[in-house]
Amino acid sequence: MVIYVRAGFLRVLTEEFAALKVKRAALVEDKVEAHSQGDLRENFGFKAAKDAIRAVDRKMDDLDRFYRRNTFIEVDPAAWLTKPTDFVQLGHVIQIEKQDVGVKQKHRFTFLVATYGETATDEESGLECLPHNSPLAAALLGLAVGKPTQVQLPAGPAVLTVLSIRNPTQTELDRLLAPIKAPEMEGEE
């Protein structure tokens, strides 16, 4: 899968992996120290160190698997300020109308189609980040303004209509794009 990320994401991923390696080395030292304290059947320090090492190993494996299974393309959000707005692309602010099939009620949303992991909401404007790899964004990418399109979403079939497409402002980007951090892996405490 191709995952778009902000510039610097791969550096953060590498730093996270390196930090886990350092943490694991310290835990191994704790385990060796606890091992030297005698009977392993009643040595809770040894068991705790062993469990902590397993947890770090799982995180390292998950991070490594995440890296190997995906192709990452780093993008610079500054380029989003001047993108052509003929159809929905990564970095556009879009207003959409969503109607679930079989229901007359319509809902309107305004999103910034953002990179992997972005989920912020700007309380002032109501603008939300919609990660490009979410099911809704995947259905919206490539659509033009005013053309109703029936799509299959996890919640069921819906008709999506793009009402407007525009470039974000620098202020919106500053409010919505959080500092880059490594993805949270399952089992994190």
Name its key features.
elongated, Chitinase A, domain 3, alpha/beta, 189 residues, two-stranded parallel ribbon, Helix Hairpins, 2 domains, 5-stranded mixed sheet
- Give the neighbour order of strands across the main sheet: 5-4-3-7-6
Determine the CATH topology of the largest domain. Answer: Chitinase A, domain 3
pLDDT below 50 for ≥5 consecutive residues: which ranges?
Answer: none
CATH class categorisation of the largest domain: Alpha Beta
Amino-to-carboxy terminus distance: 27 Å
- Structural class based on helices, strands and sheet pairing: alpha/beta
What would your notes on this structure say?
The protein has 189 residues and is an alpha/beta fold. It folds into two domains: 2-75, Transcription elongation factor, GreA/GreB, N-terminal domain (Helix Hairpins, Orthogonal Bundle), CATH 1.10.287.180; 77-176, Roll (Chitinase A, domain 3), CATH 3.10.50.30. Helices cover 35% and strands 25% of the residues. It is built from four helices and seven strands, in the order βααββββαββα. Strands 5-4-3-7-6 form a five-stranded mixed beta sheet. Strands 1-2 form a two-stranded parallel ribbon. The longest helix has 27 residues, at 9-35. The chain is elongated. It starts with a strand and ends in a 13-residue tail after the last helix. The model has no long low-confidence stretch (mean pLDDT 89).
